[in-house]
Write a structure and sequence with these properties.
With 336 residues, this protein is mainly alpha-helical. It contains 15 helices and four strands. The chain has one domain (4-322): Up-down Bundle (Formate dehydrogenase/DMSO reductase fold), CATH 1.20.1630.
């Protein structure tokens, strides 16, 4: 087997997951923040600020899941049975969230249940994504190349913690998006909620960063053995410095509209890099690596050719949409 093909596919899937988290994270964050304002006009501005983007953002989830199925079928065959319940719950929540985007406007003024579906779907989807992440970090029981655990092995105190941390992180993305892209009361909501959510997100990142090496020997060895420690210690240091700057920018948002959002993206990328360092090259920790679970080289090459044609088109379309709908959304404005 060509050793580089699984590495390329792992990079593509990892990039798709990162883009999904960053792009769909802020519009899920808008739903998480929905219950913190009761005014219909404010909620209209919040939804309008993400209306042109939300469905395109979910493209990256399809690429990540489809890429896993095509390039690493053995990993897909283990991860899916281990995570059936949270994955199904997440998809149903995303469906409720998506349907509410379309039906909330036509149901006016009787759209209370669609507001609940939007807020609840966004929050549940974010929480379950964090739960899945936590369960993967802790490891999956594999016996003879197949999932050997029970239906609820994914439900642990650690996975609940990571679920709550992801909710706080997506909420922070949503709040800083409101600061950057809206005017009026919706922007004020983002200013009010962002510092609290930043502290919650940092608390979650800190606990996870301590919990994982204390409970998982392979992660402790990865981070604290020599010479690894010399190369890896800048990551938590840069994370702390960036968090400090985000906090400072949030204190003066009028002169730094975009910086809190960009800084939050940086915090997510640093956290993501830490997770990759902790788990690579295991795709199903702690048993199966990229190479153990890879499809036949012919299948990987065939799908890679198609991906290399389609990926620039998706990236180009995404850039075009964000450029076209640039600028702030004021009360009474929007796209629906």
């Amino acid at each position: 087997m060509e050793w580089y093909l699984p590495v390329i596919w792992a990079g593509l899937i990892g990039t798709a997951v990162a883009l999904y988290v960053l792009l769909d994270g802020f519009d899920l964050g808008i739903g998480i923040l929905f219950p913190f304002t009761k005014k219909e006009a404010d909620r209209d501005v919040m939804m309008n600020s993400v209306a042109p983007f939300w469905d395109g953002n979910e493209t990256w989830l399809v690429l990540g899941g489809g890429g896993l199925w095509v390039a690493f079928p053995k990993a897909y065959a283990v991860i899916m049975p281990a995570m059936y319940l949270p994955i199904i719950g997440m998809l149903l929540a995303l469906i409720f969230r998506g349907v509410s985007f379309e039906f909330r406007w036509v149901a006016k003024p009787n759209h209370r249940w669609w507001d609940i579906a939007f807020a609840g779907g966004s929050t549940v989807a974010a929480f379950l994504q964090g739960v899945i992440l936590g369960a993967l970090i802790q490891g999956i029981n594999v016996v003879d190349g197949q999932y050997g655990g029970g239906a609820f092995d994914w439900l642990t105190p650690f996975s609940i913690l990571t679920g709550l941390a992801v909710v706080a992180g997506y909420g922070l993305l949503g709040a800083t998006w409101l600061i950057m892209r809206t005017k009026g009361p919706a922007r004020a909501l983002g200013q009010r909620m962002a510092p609290q959510l930043l502290l919650l997100m940092l608390a979650g990142m800190g606990i996870v960063s301590l919990w994982t090496p204390l409970s998982v020997d392979r992660i402790a060895e990865r981070w604290f053995s020599l010479p690894n420690f010399y190369f890896l210690w800048p990551i938590p240091l840069v994370t702390a410095l960036l968090a400090f700057f985000v906090w400072r920018w949030l204190q003066h948002p009028k002169s730094h509209d975009a910086l809190p959002f960009m800084g939050t993206i940086g915090l997510f990328l640093l956290g993501y890099a830490g997770l990759v360092i902790s788990t690579a090259p295991y795709l199903v920790p702690p048993h199966l690596t990229f190479w153990d679970t890879a499809a036949a080289p012919e299948s990987q090459i065939f799908m890679l050719i198609g991906t290399l044609f389609l990926l620039p088109m998706v990236l180009g379309y995404t850039a075009f949409v964000y450029w076209t709908f640039r600028g702030k959304v004021a009360p009474g404005e929007g796209y629906h």
